[in-house]
Structures are given as structure tokens and as C-alpha cells.
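Saturday, quiet lab. Running sequence design on the C-alpha cells for the scaffold JK sent over.
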């Protein structure tokens, strides 16, 4: 059984709740990192919580929801080990898994109806990484991440 970390800001709260119910009905384990209402909050906090769940190996994948999905993708991609993709359709969801091994999916609650979001999540969760030539490219993404980490390290 796969553990999916799920987070949203206030704009994404209702879609997050719909996705959580859908995932649970589908037999997935859900780690809900919040938010838990429509009260205004800052999306980077929830992107960080999902990213930390992945890097701590508490979850295998993460889903983030905000108004557009864009802010969450930007925030999540600041975290080492996270490859977040904002997807508004099933084909993009499949491709980000096949080619990019995306481990975080971001969705826009203002642009994606719940039934479409469920279809996107279904495709994303059900699509494996192809590896092969794509593995070389993902390895280069990881190398870029490491290079940034070294550049940010304090000098002695």
C-alpha cells in the first residue's frame, strides 16, 4: 500500500479533501499535512511539510493543491529530493512520471474540477518511471541539486 502525503493551502483545501476521500476509497494511505480549513495560510509551509515527508521516507509520493498549482510547484521544487510537476491533464501526469520520475504532483483548485483531478491523480499514481535515457536526465537533475547544495554550504 502506497503512502501519499497530501497538503494544500486555503484555496486548495476543498479539493484536497475531495482527493483525500477518493484516495482512501482507493485503498491508499494518506498523510494529511494540512491545511484543515479555508482560513488563509501560506502555501510554502505545506509544500515544505509534504517535501519533508518524502525525504524522511514517511511517504512515497506527495500531492499539493493551491489555487493554480504553480506556487506549490515552485515551493516544492526548492526542496532537495523533490521533483514536483504541476499538471492540469492526464497526459501531463503520465509524462511527468514516465520521463521525470516526478514524486510530487501539484494541482490548481481554481482550474481543475474534482473529477478531473481524480483522473489526473489516478494516471500519476499508476504510471511508473520508464528509466532508460530518462534516468540519465533525472540523474543530471539530482546533480544540479547537489551542486546547489554545495554552493549554499558555509565556507570555512
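Result came back. Writing it out in full:
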Amino acid at each position: 500500500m502506497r503512502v501519499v502525503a497530501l497538503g494544500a493551502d486555503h484555496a486548495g483545501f476543498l479539493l484536497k479533501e475531495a482527493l483525500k476521500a477518493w484516495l482512501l476509497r482507493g485503498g491508499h494511505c494518506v498523510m494529511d499535512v494540512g491545511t484543515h480549513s479555508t482560513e488563509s495560510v501560506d502555501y510554502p509551509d505545506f509544500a515544505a511539510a509534504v517535501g519533508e515527508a518524502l525525504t524522511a521516507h514517511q511517504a512515497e509520493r506527495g500531492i499539493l493543491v493551491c489555487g493554480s498549482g504553480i506556487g506549490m510547484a515552485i515551493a516544492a521544487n526548492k526542496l532537495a529530493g523533490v521533483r514536483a510537476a504541476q499538471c492540469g491533464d492526464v497526459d501531463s501526469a503520465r509524462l511527468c512520471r514516465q520521463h521525470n520520475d516526478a514524486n510530487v504532483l501539484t494541482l490548481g483548485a481554481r482550474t481543475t474540477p474534482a473529477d478531473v483531478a481524480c483522473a489526473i491523480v489516478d494516471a500519476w499514481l499508476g504510471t511508473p518511471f520508464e528509466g532508460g535515457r530518462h534516468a540519465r536526465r533525472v540523474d543530471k537533475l539530482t546533480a544540479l541539486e547537489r551542486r546547489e547544495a554545495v554552493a549554499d554550504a558555509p565556507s570555512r
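Notes for JK: The chain has a mean pLDDT of 94. The longest helix spans residues 133-152. Ask whether to fix the surface positions before the next round.
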